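Encode chain A's predicted structure.
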Amino acid sequence: MDENSLVRRDIHVPLTCTKCGKANPEYKGVGEYRCSECGFTMYDDFGIVRNYLEAHSGATQSQVSQATGVSMETIRYFLKEERLEVTSSSNVMLSCEICNAPIRSGRYCEACSKKLRLKSEAEKSASHKSNISGYGKTMKGESGARRFIR
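Encoded structure for chain A:
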C-alpha cells in the first residue's frame, strides 16, 4: 500500500455480532458497534486502540500495537488522519511531509497546511475564471455565425 494514500481497506470492522452472530451491528460512534439483537458491544480497530490509550495514556505506538493486535501501519494511519495524536510529553513526534517539522498528528504542519490550502484556493479560482464563457466572449476555434448555432 502507498504510504501517502490515506485510504485504508484493511481496518477491522465487525460485520457480525461475535456473541449471537446477527449481521450488521449498529455503529454507535468512535469505533463502537452494538448488536441490535443481544446488545453486545464490539469495537473496530480504532475503538480498540482508543480504549487501550484511555487506560494506558502515554503508551508508544509499538506498545499499543503489541497489546491490541492492531498493526503499526493502521495506528500510523489513525495518526495521519488526525483521529489520534501523539502526547505532548512524547519524545517521538510525527514529521510534516513537506518541511519535516515535528507535528502531533496529521500529515502537514500548520504553516504548510495553510500554504497548501491557499494554493488550492488559488488554483480553483484560476480554473473557475478560465472556464467562464458568456456574453461577449468567443469560444476558441469558433468564428462568425458558427458561434450562434448551438
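The chain has four helices and five strands.
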